[in-house]
Design a protein that fits this description.
Blueprint (H helix, E strand, L loop, with lengths): L1 E8 L3 H10 L6 E4 L16 E2 L10 H20 L3 E2 L3 E5 L4 H14 L6 E4 H7 L9 E5 L3 E3 L1 H14 L3 E3 L4 E6 L4 E5 L3 E9 L5 H7 L7 E11 L10 E3 L10 E4 L5 E4 L3 E2 L10 H14 L8 E12 L6 E4 L6 E5 L5 H18 L25 H10 L6 E3 L4 E2 H8 L8 H8 L12 H12 L29
Parallel strand pairs: 1-2, 1-12, 2-9, 5-14, 12-20
Antiparallel strand pairs: 3-8, 4-8, 5-7, 6-7, 10-11, 11-12, 13-16, 13-17, 13-18, 15-16, 19-20, 21-22
Helix pairs in contact: 1-5, 1-8, 2-8, 10-11, 10-12
The structure holds flavin-adenine dinucleotide.
Pfam families: DAO, Fer2_BFD
InterPro entries: BFD-like_2Fe2S-bd_dom (IPR007419), BFD-like_2Fe2S-bd_dom_sf (IPR041854), FAD-dep_OxRdtase (IPR006076), FAD/NAD-bd_sf (IPR036188), G3P_Oxidase/Oxidoreductase (IPR052745)
Organism: Fonticella tunisiensis
């Protein structure tokens, strides 16, 4: 049996941020993730906006962590080497009466401690973002908002936690938990773990994990949301994140620049019962494009290259984040119901969980050897020609371009596979390197990535998976087919 002080259940952005925070201390911690890779739940399917924090009601848990989390991003990005852009954001109003809503958001934001909020008018709006609908009249400008790739952030947290001795176990689905006076015994499909403390960060399954220890207080239902990715060929980038006036329960259809130069449009919102179904719809495309064109008329359907979806884990009793120690089961901490803005809030949630653990009796002694820095995967496309030449001379694998759309080399893919918490699936390679994220969406490079994974992991090609055991890519040879030339 593997023994730990703390076991975190769930390897999304919430669980990995907590793992990284705990890696600063002298203790034994582990993270258990059910899927083949971390960041493969809701964390892979969202808009990546680091919301500034004007939106949540000041009395909520969301308000406590959103603004604080967003302000932690610039430093974290430097330490962990992930891409982050402080783009700011605008909530755009088109009529005089919209100033009422904008003023309310402004006041709300001030109460939440969001710095620098301002209501601005036409000249300044178009100066910040020339592509906004010319009918725009007013906007709430939030200078501290930003953008990041949520899975890149979670992977960076996990890698840094792992380098600082937190054990990250994937393919470990928690199916049972028992407790005696001192320890929890945690059972997965094939192993047992022992821990003094459990942190439940299991996303849409947060209520299931709580029920395993007899806590029936929570009900998590998914709020399904779809998003679109526009091709870089659209010919322009956006400087800032653009919101319409918010709806009753959501922030409306938002137009979002990405750190890599695409535009994302998101998100729809619909409550569902199904905790697995992220299949996208035709109606979603229309709803999203209509919303996007209202804010940025130049967005056109023909530049759409991908549609994807995610499930916001909504705790239905509170419609709020639940970040607390259980009063019923000593040592069991919940970080669940982390619907939007969970990406923005994750760093602050991690600090809050750290403090809760300390209050519950976990001894937090700072670890002298803690290294806050992570070296990211080198981005070959960013190098100068001279640097490229020199690298290829030293490591010829950087001379083989595998993904042509995003210019990703074999060297980068090897690095993605052979690092701590490395990629083991085709989607894992994609989230770490962007191979397959471009215009052809993997049409050119997918089979080449399968070959590299097969070679590096020492498994036959037909055992290389897209994402999980349900997404087999190769079923056998076609009649007359010769060995692949790769
Ligand atoms: C459409 C959409 C748009 C969004 N846009 C934004 C945005 O722009 N900005 C923002 O801040 N937030 C946004 N969000 C919210 C954000 O995505 C979530 O708040 C965040 O990803 C939640 O992370 P998590 O780690 O709590 O959950 P998850 O990422 O779902 O992680 C939970 C993990 O637990 C694992 N797990 C479950 N059961 C078990 C088990 N039994 N054993 C072991 N592991 C288990 C899962 O496999 C999963 O990996 C959006 C969400 C959606 C759906």
């Amino acid at each position: 049996m593997l023994k730990f002080d703390v076991v975190i259940i769930g390897g999304g952005i919430t669980g990995t941020a907590i793992a990284r925070e705990l890696s600063k201390f002298d203790l034994k911690a582990a993270l258990l993730e059910a899927n083949m890779d971390i960041a493969s739940g809701t964390t892979k399917g969202n808009g990546g906006v680091i919301h500034s924090g004007y939106d949540p009601n000041p009395s909520t848990m969301k308000a406590k962590v959103n603004c604080k989390g967003a302000l932690m991003y610039p430093k974290l990005a430097k330490e962990l080497g992930f891409e982050y852009k402080n783009t700011g954001s605008m909530v755009v109003g088109f009529e005089d009466k919209d100033t009422e809503v904008l003023n309310k958001l402004y006041e709300n934001g001030k109460k939440n401690g969001v710095p620098g909020l301002r209501i601005i008018e036409r000249d300044e709006i178009f100066k910040i973002e020339p592509r906004v609908n010319r009918a725009a009249k007013y906007a709430l400008y939030a200078p501290t908002a930003g953008i990041a790739d949520p899975f890149e952030v979670a992977i960076a947290f996990a890698e840094n936690a792992s380098e600082n001795d937190v054990k990250i176990y994937r393919n470990q689905k928690v199916v049972g938990i028992t407790k005696n006076d001192e320890f929890f015994n945690i059972t997965t499909q094939n192993r047992e773990y022992q821990a003094r403390f459990i942190v439940n960060a299991a996303g849409v399954y947060g209520d299931y994990i709580a029920k395993l220890v007899g806590i029936e207080d929570y009900e998590i239902k998914p709020r399904f949301g779809e998003l679109l990715v526009m091709d870089k060929a659209i010919g322009f980038e956006l400087n800032t994140v653009l919101f319409p006036l918010p709806g009753n329960r959501t922030k409306g259809i938002v137009v979002i620049p990405t750190v890599h130069g695409n535009i994302i449009v998101g998100s729809t919102a619909r409550m569902t019962e199904d905790k697995e179904d992220i299949s996208v719809t035709k109606e979603g495309i229309e709803e999203l494009l209509n919303g996007a064109k209202h804010l940025v008329p130049d967005i056109e359907k023909r530049f759409l290259i991908r549609q994807f979806a995610g499930l916001r884990p909504v705790e239905t009793n509170t419609n709020d984040f639940v970040i607390e120690a259980s009063k019923k089961v000593k040592g069991f901490i919940n970080a669940i119901g982390i619907q939007s803005p969970g990406v923005a809030s994750a760093p602050a949630i991690a600090e809050m969980v750290r403090d809760i653990l300390s209050n519950e009796g976990l001894d937090l002694k700072e670890k002298k050897s803690f290294n806050p820095y992570r070296t990211p995967i080198l981005d070959f496309s960013e190098l100068t020609d001279e640097e490229k030449d020199e690298l290829i001379r030293k490591k010829p694998s950087y001379g083989r371009v595998i993904c042509r759309c995003e210019t990703v080399t074999e060297g980068e893919i090897l690095s993605a596979i052979n690092r701590p918490v490395g990629a083991v699936t085709v989607d894992g390679v994609k989230r770490r390197t962007r191979a397959g994220m471009g215009r052809c969406q993997g049409g050119f490079c997918q089979h080449r990535i399968v070959s590299i994974l097969s070679r590096e992991l020492g498994i036959p090609k037909d055992e290389v998976l897209l994402e999980n055991e349900k997404s087999k890519l190769i079923f056998g040879k076609m009649k007359g087919q010769e060995e692949s030339r790769e």
